[in-house]
Amino acid sequence: MQLGDVANEAAAGFGKPLDGVRVLALEQMQALPWATQLLARLGADVVKVEHPKGGDSGRGSLPAMTDPDGRSVGATFLRNNLNKRSICVDLKTAEGRQLVLDLAPKFDIVAENSKAGALERLGLGYEAIAAVAPRTIYLSVNGFGSSGSPYDRWPAYAPIAEAMSGIYEFKRQGDEPPMVAPMGGLGDIGSALFATIGVLAALRHRDATGRGQRVDIAMLDAMVAITDLVPNFWSLGLRNGQLGPLIMHGFRAGDGWFIVQVGRENQFAKLVEAIGHPEWATDERFADRQGWIDHLDDVLRPAIEAWAADKTKVEACDALAAIGVAAGPCYSDEEVVHDEHVAARNMLVELPRTDGVDQPVLIPGNPVKLSDVAEGPETRIPWLGEHTDEVLAAELGYDDARLAELREAGAIG
Q: Which of 12, 25, 139, 317 could form a disulfide with 215 if both were Cys (CB 3.0 to 4.6 A apart)?
């Protein structure tokens, strides 16, 4: 799907569910920018506040492309900032901080993802915003929340929260080091989803009460929720990554790997029949589920892989799906990019590059599909400070002379 395209165009006349909702985002990197991009995709007007020198630190990530002015725009920024406007404000200046306080009442949501306490020290914390904008919702996303965690002083990116959730140790084998970031920005996007849910709930609550409130999202909280089996299995007596008697493993086909999940006796019977050993359904070795694991590598794996050897991984999964056994191929990056499901569901958006490279940047599409809401049109990422004058003139009535004064003072860029 290209920028500007519209899917489900018949629903365009209904508008978007967040039309009229306005977000002032003091954001960096991914956890909050992913959430505000989702809000924008659902119709919200998102104004992104960036530092005049360099902007969102995600712009400095690699790999990168260059913008029309030759500035680097990194991958983290590219995939998290569609459909937004950018203004440059230096929050370390008194004038810049006052701009945020003046803008806050004109927005439904003020969102930030600085380290806990950073904005409070600048005079832009929840209490300061609530004092000038009591109906405005204040969204905070950071590593450990805003209520006094013992880790408050620690900076945190997604892998930090992921590691602290226990999932890295849960999956680590022997003396191997942990596999870091096995699912991309799981800690970021998981936190962003909870942030989005919190904001939508707070908006609904404001409809009923007329009051704004703080939505406080800790990345570690989000990861504890998502990696739920770590504490849950511990409480049920499993230790050191034990999954219990469950076939949830990878097997080789003719062209790569596929995953099979079997957790019930009727599924096991279907699996062994499919691979040519129906007698194993009543074999004493497999009398209970623990037998599946005890004999996985010496009996089941050789048989499953022999059965799949003349099949592609997709063919193997298709055959198992036909009898009700859950299986899925392990796709490479190339295979994901060209997958028919991904295309049919508009799950990749093409952002044309501005530096002469033909291959567009691919950004995941919106996974939230609503029957009465059109997908798109999406707009490109904003260039740094592209909308500063436009937003301050429209929202605060500033004329060219006032904008020049603020620029001269270093408050805006």
A: 139
Q: Judge whether 30 and 158 are in contact, CB under 8 Å.
A: yes
Q: CB of 74 within 8 A of CB of 59?
A: yes
* Residue count (the chain): 413
Report if pTM > 0.85: yes
- 247-330: CATH topology is formyl-coa transferase, domain 3 (3.30.1540)
The full set of domain ranges for the chain reads 9-228+356-408, 247-330
> Residue 242: exposed, middle, or buried by beta-carbon count in 10 A (0-12, 13-18, 19+)?
middle
- CB contact at 8 A, 374 and 12: yes
Distance CA 44, CA 22 (A): 6
Spell out the long-range contacts of 376-380 with Cβ–Cβ below 8 A and sequence spacing 24 or more.
376/1, 376/3, 376/4, 376/5, 376/6, 376/7, 377/3, 377/4, 377/5, 377/6, 378/3, 378/4, 378/41, 378/82, 378/83, 378/349, 379/3, 379/4, 379/82, 379/83, 380/3, 380/82, 380/351, 380/352
Read off the pLDDT of residues 361-387 as tens digits, 9 standing for 90 and up.
999 999 999 999 999 999 999 999 999
What is the C-alpha separation between 76 and 185, in angstroms, rounded?
A: 10
Q: How distant is the alpha carbon of residue 50 from its chain centre?
A: 20
Q: 9-228+356-408: what fold?
A: Rossmann fold (3.40.50)
Amino acid at 30: Q
User: What distance in Å separates the CA atoms of residue 392 and residue 396, rounded to the nearest whole number?
Assistant: 5
Is the distance from CB of 342 to CB of 357 less than 8 angstroms? no
| Owner of token pair 């499919």 | 274
Query: Residue 112's beta-bridge partner residues?
Result: 26, 140
Whole-angstrom distance, CA of residue 51 vs CA of residue 203: 28
Catalytic residue among 45, 90, 188, 221: 188
Is residue 243 classed exposed, middle or buried when 0-12, 13-18 and 19+ CB atoms within 10 A define those classes? middle
Active site residue 19: no
Residue with token string 């009229």: 20
pLDDT digit string, tens, across residues 241-298: 888 899 999 999 999 999 999 999 999 999 999 999 999 999 999 999 999 999 999 9
Separation CA 398–CA 402 (nearest Å): 6
Q: Are strands 256-262 and 214-218 parallel, antiparallel or unpaired?
A: unpaired
